[in-house]
Amino acid sequence: MTELSQNYRSHAQTRLIWALCIASMVIYINLYTVQGMLPSIAEHFDVSGAQATLVLSVTSFTLAFSLLFYAVLSDRIGRLAPIVVSLWLLAASNILLIFAQTFDDLLWVRLLQGILLAAVPAISMAYFKEQLAPSFMLKAAAVYIMANSMGGIAGRIFGGLMAQNLSWQSSMGLIFLVTLMGVALVTYLLPRKEIKPPVVKQKVSLMHKVKQDIDGFMFHLSDSQMRLAYAIGGLAFMMMVNQFSFIQLHIMAEPYGLSRFNATLIFLCYSSGTFASYLSAKWIMRYGSMPLFRVALCLMVAGTLLTLVDTLTAIVVGFLISACGFFLTHSCCNSFVAIRATSHRAKATSLYLCCYYLGASLGGPYLMLFWHEAEWNGVVVGSMSLLTLLLVAIWRLGIHQQQVIDVSKAS
């Protein structure tokens, strides 16, 4: 009987891993497909290519703040319901995209989708931690991170392929069908029962619960090292994800003249970041986060400057180098936040992701100003400004870390 029970639980855990990995791919395909369609969106809705980048920015903005909401909600009502409901609503929202008549209509729907997209990234790791045995946890984290990356790459390439061959309505109809099939599969795979963590039952008023949540968020925001980690992740993503938007416009223009689909192949450069993420845990354990932060910054600076060389090869190599540096930064930030958060861990992670996606939403309008002034050369100047701020944040975090070491040695 015990062996049957163990087999059942192992099967349920495997299903949960696959369900959340597929859900993650659905989320990132929906988030980033439009980034591969920016030229097509600009043409269909009669806006500039730079304005079209707002389609990603507005979604990242509502996604960022919704992460905090789902972190609290899932603590209150459980992990399963918010994930399932948000995914089905996401599928339904794609129908609205089919009938979007104006660019404003499109932006409003993407604002709504940002709210729905936040549930899976906000809840998944906490769901894994509660439901999985320790032996499954490492496997789940590795496969989940890979699914994130694959979903992002697939969404962008898929968007470019549709922009090359399909109309806007047909493209959104196809996205609706892909999302619908993915959501149905996730719903089927998710275990129907949750293993509830033990809690001490107390009669607590709603206002007291709200105060506890606010105190949890403020606990981390009052930590100067946490604030610097949040800033590092936000600044890095602010630059990186939006560079990928504007480089498409650059390589579609002369002297490169790439087609819409060929231009989206630049997103394959994210694969170097996937490789860096895979190795980051080993590197962090061996060298520590601070040395890797500095190496990652150097990679992002070198990669960004290399794109100024007027050859397609230099641009591709530059983005491969930058993506490696960015994902290394992201992995170090994740590790730093997870280790430093001794309490309110879910809130610490959601705050980091909030800053991360908030950076993405602000980076589009920010780099657009530089694009209008000097196109890609201007984007590089704007990126170097962000990297300068990143340098300051990493330097200040290093000072804090050294002070902690000095105090521990003195005691």
Structure description:
The protein is mainly α and 411 residues long. It is 85% helix and 0% strand. The protein has 16 helices and no strands. It has helices at residues 2-32, 38-44, 49-52, 54-77, 80-98, 103-117, 119-131, 134-165, 168-189, 206-221, 224-252, 260-264, 270-287, 289-306, 312-340, 345-410. Helix 5 packs antiparallel against helix 7. The longest helix is centred in the last third of the chain and has 66 residues, at 345-410. The protein is globular, with a radius of gyration of 21 Å. The N and C termini lie far apart (54 Å). The mean pLDDT is 86.
Layout of helices and strands:
Layout (H helix, E strand, L loop, with lengths): L1 H31 L5 H7 L4 H4 L1 H24 L2 H19 L4 H15 L1 H13 L2 H32 L2 H22 L16 H16 L2 H29 L7 H5 L5 H18 L1 H18 L5 H29 L4 H66 L1
For the report, how would you describe the main beta sheet? none
The number of helical runs is 16
The portion of residues assigned to helices is over 70%
What portion of the residues fall into strands of 2 or more residues? under 5%
Uncertain runs are: none
Provide mean pLDDT, rounded.
Answer: 86
Number of strands: 0
Strand/helix succession: HHHHHHHHHHHHHHHH
The SS-based structural class is mainly alpha
CA(first)-CA(last) distance:
54 Å
Shape: globular
Q: What is the alpha-carbon Rg in Å?
A: 21 Å
List keywords for this structure.
16 helices, mainly alpha, 411 residues
Short description:
This protein has 411 residues and is mainly α.
